[in-house]
């Protein structure tokens, strides 16, 4: 089995396996994210959790609402669907230009039973939002195109890796080039984050309908860019977390990748018992040590994790 594939499997496991979170709010976000309703009971649980999260955060969570809007339509909860779509359009800049056309509600709002309502609602609310956020449009476009750019780069250089018998030296060059392209994409996020001093999310900037999280993950995965990514982005993650715009997930992602690269962690969010022995850096490890104990204490205090 190729080393890169083993690393991918380990990272996938690390990013999804942990059973604990730093706060109840973090745990609730994880519960909502993992709930893919199959019946009315699990759907009502999702709605209850979304409303509880709004009470805890003191504001709607546009990313989680948007990620569940197709579920609302699938469950035929049209009142909630319409109210959510109106909220996302009016307050967060929901834009039909960034739809794929494959959404389960697309035909309904464009040509079907909801078209008359949607067009009237959208033209009014989107126009009003746009008039107040015109200066953000280029950045919103750039952020919305990152996912596709990331996938194109990954696919192209992945094909080179799979189809050519590269020497070790050539593979090192390919891998470094890949990291460079990944970080160029991350710099787009950073350029917007600098302006607002936090991550560009719905409540801090605008709803980005094509989520860019994979860009951060790919830079964290690469040996040449992981350190630069997490140290550069930490201040923005911190501000966003304190403002309740993100959960603890980015910090857990950092720890997971640090474990893969160095066998250490910085935020103390992962446990060795969660990692299968066959996938550990050292089979006899009994803990995942801290990269810098003093820095860990400082950062956890900043984040409110005592």
Please provide a brief summary of the model.
It is built from 15 helices and no strands.
Q: What brief labels describe this structure?
A:
mainly alpha, single chain, 306 residues, globular
Number of beta-strand segments: 0
Strand content: under 5%
* Helix-strand category: mainly alpha
Q: How would you spell out the order of helices and strands?
A: HHHHHHHHHHHHHHH
Intertermini distance: 41 Å
State the helical fraction.
Answer: 55-70%
List low-confidence stretches.
Answer: none
How would you portray this structure in words?
The chain has 15 helices and no strands. The protein has helices at 3-17, 24-34, 40-57, 62-67, 69-74, 78-92, 106-110, 115-132, 137-144, 146-163, 168-196, 213-221, 226-242, 249-262, 293-302. Helix 11 (168-196) crosses helix 12 and helix 13 (226-242) packs antiparallel against helix 14 (249-262). The longest helix is centred in the middle third of the chain and has 29 residues, at 168-196. The protein is globular and about 60 Å long. It starts with a helix and ends with a helix. 28% of the residues are buried.
